[in-house]
Automatic annotation (TrEMBL):
This is Glycerol-3-phosphate phosphatase. One of its GO terms (cellular component) is cytoplasm. SUPFAM superfamilies: HAD-like. GO terms for molecular function: metal ion binding; phosphatase activity. The lineage of its organism: Eukaryota, Metazoa, Spiralia, Lophotrochozoa, Mollusca. Divalent metal ions. Mg(2+) is the most effective. It comes from Octopus vulgaris (Common octopus). Coiled coil: none annotated. Keywords: Magnesium, Metal-binding. Its cofactor is Mg(2+). InterPro entries: HAD-like_sf, HAD-SF_hydro_IIA, HAD_sf. It comes from the Eukaryota. PANTHER family: 4-NITROPHENYLPHOSPHATASE-RELATED, FI11325P-RELATED. Mg(2+) binds at D62, D64, D287.
């Protein structure tokens, strides 16, 4: 539970860290101190950040676009120092991610690689939450058809949930009805779980929608708000929302249940490990208005948007006041400067 990043480690890491790297190519922009977007959305700056953060005991931190770039690789300037100082000021830091491509162990390894010495219990990975939801909330005992990642399989395996479907589709593609009817289907499927899957194909849509013909087969998805990211000139990478949209359309009119942000289930999942959490003392920080800030509003915590990932200033300006966060600021480096 103790953040053991030493100054020596931090300085060694800092020397290796390139200049601030924002995944969408944005460069740092300066904002007027105390700039207020609406009656309930204030800019955090050097003069206000410490006073504001002192109001909270716990900070729920999104990862992609906050701790590192939205590409899950690019490093953010001064994040190590910011986290170190937040911990030094007694803040409990919990890391909550909707990224379904990685397991809790993978995230842990990444934090360690970045110089953060943290506890597994402080990482809340969507794949782990989805496995828990299937096992403990829905009581799934038989099998789960998965359109998702290897990491999703890892978390299901950790809870001893039988599953199949991950990876390349084994059956040959065909549009002939006889071929489709000849494909093998299991009769013990209690749920269809959908996350990001780069192997999504027609056969997988066929199988998922077929299993979901059974009204007792649960339809669970990790997230449906992350639609994609621009990765280059005229290049847009569809994300989990696009996969969920395709499966949902194929399985129409079945409705799915979202386990990840902005669903409040994720907070209940966190509370199981930290029952002492007090919503009045929680600040949720993220880079997505639809995911992180909406999540904060759903659970009833205050929220802050960083402009270092999925959302830019124009997006925030275009957002209705009721959907705006309590605070916004450029990136976590602010806390390295003011604490
Ligand atoms: Mg994010």
């Amino acid at each position: 539970m103790v953040f053991k990043l030493t100054r020596t480690v931090y300085h060694a890491w800092s020397k290796l860290t390139p200049r601030v790297l924002l995944a969408d190519g944005m460069r740092r922009r300066s904002f007027d101190a105390g700039r207020k977007l609406s009656s309930n959305c204030c800019h955090l700056d050097c003069s206000s950040a410490k006073r504001i953060v002192d109001k909270y005991d716990t900070i729920l931190l999104d990862c992609d676009g906050v701790i590192w770039g939205t590409d899950h690789v690019s490093r953010m300037d001064k994040v190590n120092e910011a986290l170190y100082k937040l911990r030094q000021h007694g803040k409990q830091l919990l890391f909550v991610t909707n990224n379904s491509l990685h397991s809790t162990n993978t995230f842990f390894d990444k934090f360690v690689q970045y110089g953060f010495d943290i506890n597994h219990d402080e990482i809340f990975c969507i794949n782990s939450a989805a496995a828990f939801y299937l096992k403990s909330v829905l009581g799934v005992k038989k099998s789960v058809y998965v359109i998702g990642s290897e990491a999703m399989g890892t978390e299901l395996q950790n809870l001893k949930i039988d599953h199949f479907g991950i990876g390349p589709e084994p059956d040959s593609t065909s549009r002939k009805i006889d071929d489709l009817l000849d494909m093998h289907f299991r009769d013990d499927v209690e749920a269809v779980l959908v996350g990001f899957d780069e192997y999504l194909c027609y056969n997988k849509l066929y199988k998922a929608s077929s299993y979901l013909q059974d009204p007792d087969c649960h339809f669970i998805v990790t997230s449906d708000v992350e639609m994609g990211t621009k990765i280059g000139l005229n290049r847009y990478r569809p994300s989990v929302g696009a996969v969920v949209g395709a499966v949902s359309a194929a399985a129409h009119p079945r409705k799915y249940t979202v386990v990840g942000k902005p669903s409040s289930f994720l907070y209940k999942f966190i509370k199981l490990k930290f029952p002492e959490l007090n919503l009045n003392k929680i600040l949720t920080i993220g880079d997505s208005l639809k995911s992180d800030i909406k999540f904060a509003k759903n659970i009833g915590s205050d929220s802050a948007l960083v402009l270092s990932g999925a959302s830019d200033m124009q997006t925030l300006l275009n957002t209705p006041d009721g959907d705006k966060p309590n605070y916004y600021f450029q990136n976590l480096a602010l806390f390295a400067e003011v604490l």
